Amino acid sequence: MHGTEREKANYARPTRGIPKTPTGIAGLDELMGGGLPAGRPTLLCGAAGCGKTLMAVTFLYNGATKFGEPGVLVTFEERLEDLVQNVTSLHYDLNQLLAEKKLAIDHVRIERTEIEETGEYDLEGLFIRLGHQIDSIGAKRVVLDTIEALYGGLTNEVILRSELRRLFEWLKDKGVTALVTDLSNSERVLMRLDIDRSTPRQQS
Amino acid sequence: MTGVHQRGVAPHDYILRLFVAGHTQRSLRAVRNITRLCEEHLSGHFDLEIVDVYQQPEKAVEHQLIAAPTLIKVSPLPARRMVGDLSDTGRVLAGLGLSAG
């Protein structure tokens, strides 16, 4: 599906039955048996400043430039201009990818001070936005960076937890290969996604 | 679902936009709640636009929507966002800058 035959041979070696989507980051793809689980969401956790955003953007950049897979970047923190500038030193020309519709970027701003919670809600607004962006360029890859921001803006943990679970299912239904980043406090992350650690199961 | 209540809007009047996702019970509750509150507390001095973002997904991007339903008070300033079905009347009125009662 993606890339040339040579690249397929290099990256997409079938291992353990799960098809993989190459990140194009050579050492990483080797370690992961070809890349990220294709058509499924993967959670990427790490402390602030450890390079989550950089890895996520590289995943999208390589997808668009090497593997013919357009991507959507939902960024909760960095403004579009800042993002574009931050990766210019790596010779990533995001503006060109945007112009060629190989990349769509949606900066989701959450202003806690502006928000009042007045009853039942869900995150359908976010789902619709993301769906709209995916459909607009036929995206195969999606990055959400980082979901920690949702907790800064909304306070109802019960709703957020169930909606994050729904988001992962929804991404899977969409068939996109998704990379979702979060801070590294693993206890909290697992709580958020309602993953029971006593019975480990593969998120993918 | 793009009902607009327009009663000769003056510059000092309230401009409100309610974003809902489909015709769910929650959406309908939000519409009922805001319509009632507007009638009771703003006595015609308001412009309420209801947008179904399933019909107009680009509006979700344009207006920075995350949660649904979301009520945005565009005017008077400061702009406020109220997420949820607007059942908590006290909070809605506070968000609108209207004292309860």
Describe this structure in words.
- The complex is a heterodimer of chains A (204) and B (101).
- In chain A, 42% of the residues lie in helices and 16% in strands.
- With 204 residues, chain A is of the alpha/beta class.
- In chain A, strands 3-8-7-4-5 form a five-stranded parallel β-sheet, sandwiched between helices. A two-stranded antiparallel ribbon of chain A has the order 1-2.
- With 101 residues, chain B is an alpha+beta fold.
- Chain B has one domain (4-90): 3-Layer(aba) Sandwich (Glutaredoxin), CATH 3.40.30.10.
- Chain B has three helices and five strands.
- The mean pLDDT of chain B is 88.
- β6 (115-117) of chain A pairs parallel with β5 (80-83) of chain B, so a sheet runs across the interface.
Mean pLDDT metric of chain B: 88
Helix content of chain A: 40-55%
The assigned CATH architecture of chain B is 3-Layer(aba) Sandwich
**What is the molecular shape of chain B?**
globular
Strand residue percentage of chain B: 25-35%
Distance between the termini of chain B: 30 Å
- What is the H/E order of chain A? HEHEEHEHHEEHEHHEH
Report the CATH C-level class of chain B: Alpha Beta
- The largest beta-sheet of chain B arranges its strands as 1-3-2-4-5
Q: Compute the gyration radius of chain B: what is it?
A: 13 Å
Sequence stretches where pLDDT stays below 50 over 5 or more residues of chain B: none
Unreliable stretches of chain A (pLDDT < 50, length at least 5) are: 196-204
Strand portion of chain A: 15-25%
Total count of strands of chain A: 8
Which class do the helix and strand fractions of chain A yield? alpha/beta
Number of helices of chain B: 3
Number of strands of chain B: 5
The whole-angstrom Rg of chain A is 17 Å
- Share of helix of chain B, binned: 25-40%
